[in-house]
Structure formats: C-alpha cells, structure tokens
C-alpha cells in the first residue's frame, strides 16, 4: 500500500471489533501506523486487559450496542473469537460498513463463510481475510528461493497440535471440533500461496 493510500485509510473512521489477544495485536500495528480507531469490546475482563496493555479505551457492551448508539464506521477490523467471526462481520456489513478485514477463517464452516460472502455481495462490501503471513519478509525471501530453484514440486504438512493440550482449553466446543480450520488455516494458506 502506498503511503498516500495508507494515510487515506488511517484518516477514515475505523472500528476494531474485539478486545482479546488478536485485537491487541491489531491495536499495536494501528498505533505504530498512527491511525485513529475506536475499539468495540464485549466483555469487561478482556476489555480491562486490552486497556491496560494498549492504553486505549474500549467501548464495552458489544457490537449491537455500539451500532445502536453510533453511526457505523467506514472500515472495520474484526478480531473476535472464531465462533463469532461470521456473525459479527455480517452485522457490520448489514449496518453499512463497506471495507472489512476479518480474522481467519471468517467462519466455523463452509456454510458460514459462503453466507458471509453472499451477504458481502448483496451489500457491495469488500471483505478481506487476514491471511497476512503471505506478506512477511521471510515469505518474500522464500518465494525468491523457490523461483530460483525452479518452483514448488511438493509440500508436506506436519502439525504439532496436541489433543491433550487443546482439550482443557476453555473455548467453544465447536471451535475445538474444527481446530484445523479455526487455528491452522494460515499455514495451509501460506503453503498453497507459495
């Protein structure tokens, strides 16, 4: 993105929806870029951690509450729990938000992702999935090495997601039963991108 376009984006009204770990990561990037943004959180606990770690205030009460009190933003970043990605993104689209960056994988299954795609099309919204590893410097270098070597011939996936570590996590059961989709598609995306 050119400096001009980046400046233009940062001048627009932007909501960061979510106050958890991923939202804190996005806030750090937005702060470095100097952009103004409003944080919309749901829970008191995650919002307090967000505020303590970022120094940014969080509007507590969730997205529906924020949309009923304020005009929808021009742009949004959705960084909520995996089980809420599709619903929250669809709410933003229906409220009139035209440009959304949503954390991967945008839904818990193909039906949710296809529904979100349909809603985006119906409302003329641009929704981008945050498969951002494609843009790492190391990936750029890997791409150069691959091209120098004549291209990719095969790929091997090895995941070290241990069930005994995942089982006790206090997360939605639907997320656990779709762990590859919910937690590891960034790896799959990167390999197929290369």
Brief synopsis:
With 194 residues, this protein is α/β, with parallel strands linked by helices. It is built from ten helices and six strands. The protein starts with a helix and ends with a helix.
General description of the model:
The protein has a six-stranded parallel beta sheet with strand order 3-2-1-4-5-6, sandwiched between helices. The longest helix is centred in the last third of the chain and has 15 residues. The chain has 194 residues and is α/β, with parallel strands linked by helices. The N terminus is likely disordered. Helix 6 links the parallel strand 5 and strand 6. The protein is built from ten helices and six strands, in the order H-E-H-E-H-E-H-E-H-E-H-E-H-H-H-H.
Structural class: alpha/beta
Order of helices and strands: HEHEHEHEHEHEHHHH
- Cα gyration radius (Å): 18 Å
Q: Mean of residue pLDDT?
A: 90
**Helical residue percent?**
40-55%
Shape, please? Answer: globular
What profile does the largest beta sheet have? 6 strands, parallel
**Termini distance?**
21 Å
Low-confidence stretches: 1-7
Strand content: 5-15%
Strands ordered across the widest β-sheet: 3-2-1-4-5-6
The total beta strand count reads 6
Write the layout of secondary structure elements.
Blueprint: H1 3-11, E1 14-17, H2 21-33, E2 38-41, H3 44-54, E3 58-60, H4 63-69, E4 75-78, H5 85-94, E5 99-102, H6 110-123, E6 126-129, H7 137-148, H8 163-166, H9 173-177, H10 179-193
Parallel strand pairs: 1-2, 1-4, 2-3, 4-5, 5-6
Helix pairs in contact: 5-6
Question: Features of this protein?
Answer:
194 residues, alpha/beta, globular, disordered N terminus
